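Notebook B, p. 112. Complex prediction, attempt 2.
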Amino acid sequence: MNPDISRERENASFNPEILTNILDGGAEKTRRRREIESLVIGDPDFQHEDLNFLSRSERYDAAVRKSAQMILKLREYGISDPEEIYSYKSCVHRGRPEPLDLHLGMFLPTLLNQSSPAQLEAFFMPAWNLEIIGTYAQTEMGHGTHIRGLETTATYDPSTQEFVLNSPTISSIKWWPGGLGKTSNHAVVLAQLYTQGKCHGLHAFITPIRCMKTHMPLPGVVVGDIGPKFGFDEVDNGYLKLENVRIPRENMLMKYAKVEPDGTYVKPPSDKLTYGTMVFIRSMIVGESARALSKSCTIAIRYSAVRHQSELRPGEAEPQILDYQTQQYKLFPLLAAAYAFHFVGQYMSKTYHRISGDINQGVFSELPELHALSAGLKAFTTWVANAGIEVCRMSCGGHGYSRCSSLPDIYVTFTPTCTYEGENTVMMLQTARYLVKSYKQARAGQQLTGIVSYLNEPQSRIQPHSVSSRPTVVNINDLASLVEAYKFRAAKLVEMAAKNLQAELQHSRSNEDAWNNSSIDLVRASDAHCHYVVVKLFAAKLSEIEDTAVHSVLSTLALLYALHGVAQNSGDFLQAGLLSVPQLAQISQRLKGLLSELRPNAVPLVDAFDYRDEMLNSALGRYDGNVYEHMFEWAKRSPLNHTEVHESHHKYLKPLRSKLIMDTVCDHQSQVTVPYEFSRRLNGLISKCHCHQTARGLLLLDLACLKNRPQVSVIKSIPINMNRLTTVASITAASSIYKPTPRKTLTKPSQ
Amino acid sequence: MNPDISRERENASFNPEILTNILDGGAEKTRRRREIESLVIGDPDFQHEDLNFLSRSERYDAAVRKSAQMILKLREYGISDPEEIYSYKSCVHRGRPEPLDLHLGMFLPTLLNQSSPAQLEAFFMPAWNLEIIGTYAQTEMGHGTHIRGLETTATYDPSTQEFVLNSPTISSIKWWPGGLGKTSNHAVVLAQLYTQGKCHGLHAFITPIRCMKTHMPLPGVVVGDIGPKFGFDEVDNGYLKLENVRIPRENMLMKYAKVEPDGTYVKPPSDKLTYGTMVFIRSMIVGESARALSKSCTIAIRYSAVRHQSELRPGEAEPQILDYQTQQYKLFPLLAAAYAFHFVGQYMSKTYHRISGDINQGVFSELPELHALSAGLKAFTTWVANAGIEVCRMSCGGHGYSRCSSLPDIYVTFTPTCTYEGENTVMMLQTARYLVKSYKQARAGQQLTGIVSYLNEPQSRIQPHSVSSRPTVVNINDLASLVEAYKFRAAKLVEMAAKNLQAELQHSRSNEDAWNNSSIDLVRASDAHCHYVVVKLFAAKLSEIEDTAVHSVLSTLALLYALHGVAQNSGDFLQAGLLSVPQLAQISQRLKGLLSELRPNAVPLVDAFDYRDEMLNSALGRYDGNVYEHMFEWAKRSPLNHTEVHESHHKYLKPLRSKLIMDTVCDHQSQVTVPYEFSRRLNGLISKCHCHQTARGLLLLDLACLKNRPQVSVIKSIPINMNRLTTVASITAASSIYKPTPRKTLTKPSQ
């Protein structure tokens, strides 16, 4: 154990295990999670070489192997609780996505949700036993956000009772579905249904794409992998082009809508269940933001505790970089955000499950608010986490760029959350739509419930005031007061956005144009609303914490989170008259104080996230702090080190060397040229330096003859010119000294 | 040509060619750059498969091959102008770093700058002809920023007239130098020189590390590749551990300091030349920021012009996503920043070359200011560009994640600039040191010159005022007025930082502690200073533009850049009393107006950057806008598509399938279990469903028997439960329907 990091743990003011239990949702949950992690990590079937050392094909191969093992073992062990399955799977794939994700997470559930009983009978067990491996093919090359714009067609042919599926344009090719490229033999294809000459919009069709025996693509099916991406190396995201592919009528998922044998279309009853699913997935992504950020903070903070650099006090040892205020200012607000998002994730999950009971009863009243909140919080938290991972990475200096830090992998695995399951800006605008609607209702005198009820509060309190003429609203040392400030900021920005939208409506061609012309304001309002919700939920969580030491440290984190957000958005708070100018300076000072307060607990606070070394897979973030030893061991295993001499040495560098030497030797007959910059300075001196016995002699004589001239300053300029030349070009400084052009003949030099 | 993008070009209000010439520094420069690009791109020796499809070893191999060709051809063609070499090299390697970078850009220049004449004779020509391939080994595993802390030792042994080199600790292992891992056979090693029992600090030693004949590591040398990184796949960044490696006395670079044969140390005269080099490199990085950002904007803006999505007006076609205000708000300020940074880069380069003339004459008076400015601007521009590339990438939706967009590669190639050549926060603090010093001089009545002279201006103008009680300073429509506002903001923040530092000095243990405790404020002051310089230089550039149409569009960009910065930092401007609250709302509106004004010129403005398709290498950023066709062609070439059926199918999925089917068939004898969530809801119903004829029958009977119960609402809950289960876990929704545990025997089912 590195003594620096041991000392950090000795100085903790609280017991991290208690905090771990809070994060897990109870001591028993912690115990069981650890049990499952040990089960996987100790299992020889799940061992693998460091994925960073494998090619993409090898990584895909390893992932398929592990997924196959995982399915067998989950059934064997009878692990069936969702959270336990999550722990098991995270551990097997170390938090990475895998090729069967869409089969297990989308194809099977879609079968269950949207099949008629006969379809269940036909498809479910084969899919359950992986005879049928399926994916969910919605997104097309030209269509993502706007699913009504999908172009794939399914045209019913009553003569054969078949649907004929087509990708009519290049932009209609299905693109991105995970597992589509190589793994799946079926896909649920979303397509525009045409029957009896009429389009009935999007429906889902179970479409065989590869032969169940040979796994070769079926006739009319063009399928493959979409190529390498930023991360997701294990997943065969795929493309699918359909050319008159015929499937039986029974392959349209017919639990709700139906096409009868004669082609008659039967409308579905309204269906809000998928709406619920979407809300659920977005809520879960809030938790993913917390996880990605907490992993990154764990790595960066532990590394900062063992890395020493520069001088704080002359003559003393180099300090831990965690002692630099700028380093604390980068990392501690992110640490606070990781905790905040964790608690928000817990809240979202709990709320979803509470509401989903009502949904099952057909009661949807709370769903719109949760829908709006999950959209905005998904965007808010993923944006913060996305940028935060990179701040953590760069706070590790050069070593953060090494794959052994794991930070590049955390980033590329996480960053798609900003886009999938609802592009973030689109999400913010969905939330804004709800906020504007609620604002109008409040204005109309309706009493709002739930989290937007603040829009009912007297508007006078949030009118802009002259900063100097009104009493200060905010007590910057009081979290409750800060929650209020965030609330009024949100109310103010929602009001501004709603008013701007109203003004735009006066002179816009359409409501949509007015909406678009207000969208910057609308996103800003959503962002402020989400920020308020996060601060509020973090504050609310504190009241549940019984342990005083843990309560104390979390309170400091919450205050840091809130004040940091005020400082980052000080314009909004000043604009809304919630803060005075002198308070801003006080906040800066208070923030510095909070960083110092948190400093001794920084390592214990990341320890409490309780990521095993095998899960972090980071040489920098190791629990024992023995960073350098493990970096070195890791590097030695790198594939480029499998041979001492890389073949390129023999193929290119040795032949180049021979060629250059021969050229040089022969060039005494050719003219010497120098770059214009150099020659301009030397005023033709060079032209007096003709060729000499050998090339080496030539060069040295050039230098020597310059040296013997009276222009000593010219000689002095060479290094600068060299640097300029070589740095601009990153190439061959030497070309300014000596350059034969063009070569004529290759003859032996005359002695 | 995609008609959308043609139309964009028809609507340009200016001639992009004129702007291209301005960016290149003249029409002749544009012509010659294009000539060189054609030379490389048409050259069959530089063709290669898409690098995204190659393994790291193959990428390294391809880079070595191309570098070898490049060296031959540069000499053959006689290309020697630094800018031309830069163009040629950029084109060969498409802007990526390569294995010979450090040989050409550091090793050869170091030889030229720091060798004695005898050393030049001995080493230069072999290095010039790549018999000696060298690198520059400074950074150690434990030491980056603080080079005085390097631990490698070179101890002189007068008995053999040799230096003995050692890596005494694991943290002293040389780590990161490019080309060190596999390519180089020599390294300039920075080490602490010990002679006659005394340490004389860092010196440079030419150290053979691999055999010149076999290329195998020499005795006592442990050398290898440091493993995969975030990008830089072509470069063999390496490690080097030295164990009693002996080199002749003559291998210490002795132009300045010397060690005599008896071990007497001769001090160097003071040497400011390397200081100049550092300034130069950082100045160049400002230009790199402009290039990375302009490439990213080119891709994102062209793609946004051909991508259609969602609805602006019901019933009309899906609009170009460039018509969304939020998309413009993401991209146009970055486009403006790309132009701003380009002009700042030109200024830095010009200033450096002007000053370097003085430096050659031993006049260093302007160097400190340029040093401070280059440090801060390096940090300021790389941070903005780094985040900006990612904004561009994410503005392309899902396709931005594909390697075919080139955006991931631009990011990973660029992001190290935030760390190398001076870690950004350290850079900001260097600038702050200069600012604080200048501030104190100004306070002491000294008249400052150069860019910091604003610190002399009357402080009264920048005292905080009550916003409502004073006249507005800024005219938000006037760039000159905005430049003034940035200046006063900078002055204000420098003053605040200096005062905070002063206050800290009262109660700190040391000057260094006080500095550390003020460092957040100091970084903020530097940032404001750099922001001011960028706005000022952008405004200054406008006065040089003669073409009125180009002048007009660049003026709009400059105003956007300035106002966007005010809006992003509105707290500072309010706090400094430079803006009133009502002005903030006006700025928001004005910004929207500027986005609309720029909209028709967006594509022509990125066209003017004049990146050839071969240089961008982006399916999304193609000049012809034919995005989808080229994505599809690219994907088809992906290595995973070289075979129709991936071997993992036969190795893992087929055996798994057989195993699962057999298990299922046999499980009619085992007990049925369900997840707790499900079982809790079903209240023991499940226990009534015993095993049945076949597994398929079992499943369906489960469902069927549930269906026949009065609790219809329970049935309805299945889909939700399924979703919950499968989404939390991303796995096997079906486990809640049917789960045999644990398997006992594998027998054939009884019929």
